[in-house]
Amino acid sequence: MLKCGDTFLTGDGDEDNFHLWIIVTPATEGEVVTVCLVTANKRTERLVVLKPGDHPFVKHDSAISYNFSKIRLVADIEALLENGFANSKEPMPPDVLLRIQAGVVDSDFTPNGVRAFYREVMA
């Protein structure tokens, strides 16, 4: 069973477009909120930046892209993992997870429905 802080790598088939996704809520009625980690560049939101050492996957400055935040079915993520369309990675360290979670509410780019679901789950 997937839990808050778990991470997985998936993308659109092109290895350059694979991103680390982080589950930032516990499962509620089979749903979780996920956020995406992308390479930090001049156009990237920099509310939460991860540096090498924050997580084994992070090799250079990377940022949480809250505009890609999603509410997902746990069953869909598990199916991606079981069918080889995603790979489990190490869980996010608790202190880093807390920074990422704070950004879900603080970011101007988090979709409103995701923000509302997150607040309801984390209340």
Nearest-angstrom radius of gyration?
13 Å
Distance between the termini: 22 Å
Task: Count helical runs.
Answer: 3
Query: Can you count the beta strands?
Result: 6
Low-confidence parts? none
* Strand-pairing-aware structural class: alpha+beta
Give the DSSP E fraction (strand runs of 2 or more residues). Answer: 25-35%
Shape: globular
What share of the residues lie within helices? 25-40%
Q: Name the helix and strand elements from N-terminus to C-terminus, one letter apiece.
A: EEEEEHEHH
Quick one: biggest sheet? Answer: 6 strands, antiparallel
Q: Strand order of the main beta sheet, please?
A: 4-5-3-2-1-6
Overall pLDDT confidence:
94
What does this structure look like?
There is one protein chain. The chain is an alpha+beta fold and about 120 residues long. The protein has helices at about 75-80, 95-105, 110-120, and strands at about 5-10, 20-25, 30-40, 50, 60-75, 85-90. The longest helix has 13 residues, at about 95-105. The mean pLDDT is about 95.
